[in-house]
Write a structure and sequence with these properties.
- The protein contains 3 helices and no strands.
- It is mainly α.
- The longest helix is centred in the C-terminal third of the chain and has 28 residues.
- The N and C termini lie far apart (38 Å).
C-alpha cells in the first residue's frame, strides 16, 4: 500500500507542478523510494521462501535482515544523491 501511495505522489509530481520547482526532485526521489520498498520486500520474501521446504532464513525477524536492509538503504542514498546532482546540473544548463 505504501508503495502504491508513493507511486501516486511520483505521478502527481510528474504530471502537475503541485510541488513547484521541486516537482522533478519529488518525482525522482519518489520513484527511487518505491525501488527501496520493493527491494526490502523482495529480499525478505526470497530468503524466507527459497529453497522450498528449507528456506535460507527461518522468518522475517532474523538478524541477517538488518545488515541487508542497511545495504539497501546505503545503495538507495547513493543513487538518490547521484540523481539529485544530475537534476541540479541539468537545471543550471
Amino acid at each position: 500500500m505504501l508503495t502504491l501511495a508513493t507511486f501516486g505522489v511520483a505521478a502527481l509530481a510528474g504530471k502537475t507542478r503541485v510541488f513547484g520547482r521541486l516537482s522533478s526532485y519529488v518525482e525522482t526521489i519518489s520513484y527511487s523510494v518505491t525501488l527501496l520498498f520493493l527491494g526490502i520486500s523482495t529480499v525478505t520474501e526470497t530468503l524466507t521462501r527459497v529453497p522450498p521446504g528449507a528456506p535460507i532464513v527461518a522468518g522475517p525477524d532474523a538478524p541477517i535482515f538488518k545488515p541487508l536492509y542497511l545495504v539497501l538503504l546505503v545503495l538507495f542514498l547513493v543513487g538518490v544523491t547521484m540523481q539529485i546532482r544530475r537534476l541540479r546540473t541539468a537545471a543550471t544548463t
